[in-house]
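Submission sheet (multi-component)
Chains listed below:
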Amino acid sequence: MRVKFNKNKRLCTKFGFKMNNIIYAVFLASLIEKPLYGYLLVEKLEEFGIKSDFVPYGSAYRILRDMEFSGLVSSEWQTEGTGPAKRVYKITDKGTEFLRNWLVDAKKNLETLEKILKRIGGVLNEQDK
Amino acid sequence: MRVKFNKNKRLCTKFGFKMNNIIYAVFLASLIEKPLYGYLLVEKLEEFGIKSDFVPYGSAYRILRDMEFSGLVSSEWQTEGTGPAKRVYKITDKGTEFLRNWLVDAKKNLETLEKILKRIGGVLNEQDK
DNA sequence: AAATTTATATATAAAATGTATATAGAGAAA
DNA sequence: TTTCTCTATATACATTTTATATATAAATTT
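Outcome: structure written.
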């Protein structure tokens, strides 16, 4: 049985910058702009500065299903139009709230990381003297 | 058989901010200042702004052994002095070089993350209008 | 003498991620 | 027209990463 997203607090503790953690956020941000299906969401990563082959489709679809299971997004089959059927996702209120909170935490984590890098840089500079 | 540190490029690709990745770097930075044993290295994390209970001792000792296996540090038993025997680590030239390279990458990754967060912030602001 | 702290180590379990493969519609090329 | 490629989703399996639990033992504190 797959683990529920965010069931375990550890998922978002520590520095929270696991790859998928960021992908959750970017997918949600994309979906705020407009509903989209998985394949396009992966391609849209480029707009956020993430090479789309960083995220295998297998992972992307799993992330989306997990997010739906957690109530952050909802989905519907779109059968009209050209090509194979597409599962179109849209963000829920819960998803929007989640993203807002995630961003607050992420900013804090980024600051912490910045301090750590500066400290490490300081140690290396000291050594050069 | 344990996987060799950095054998798989993935270990340091993507955003590279997995917890242990940061711990490798902080341990190495600590060891540039002076040789230390595992137990104290964990306690020293606080100086870098990382709560030491973020890293269980079990993980810390494994990280140190992995780093030794990869030639980033070397170790010796210290039996004199008070308390149980301590395995004292010191950084190697390879370790120093590794840390310098890691820092360069980490800074780039941090910038990328910053941009992503800004973009997400932008999407959320847009929604508020 | 018993409990706690310091110190290292390993085994096991759980969680996260990556790779491989299956399916199938639609359009292009041979 | 049938073969190939692209779009699109999905799942199974494998690997990697991380956490928890436990074992050992010297030294110190109660």
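Remark: Confidence is low (pLDDT under 50) at residues 1-14 of chain B.
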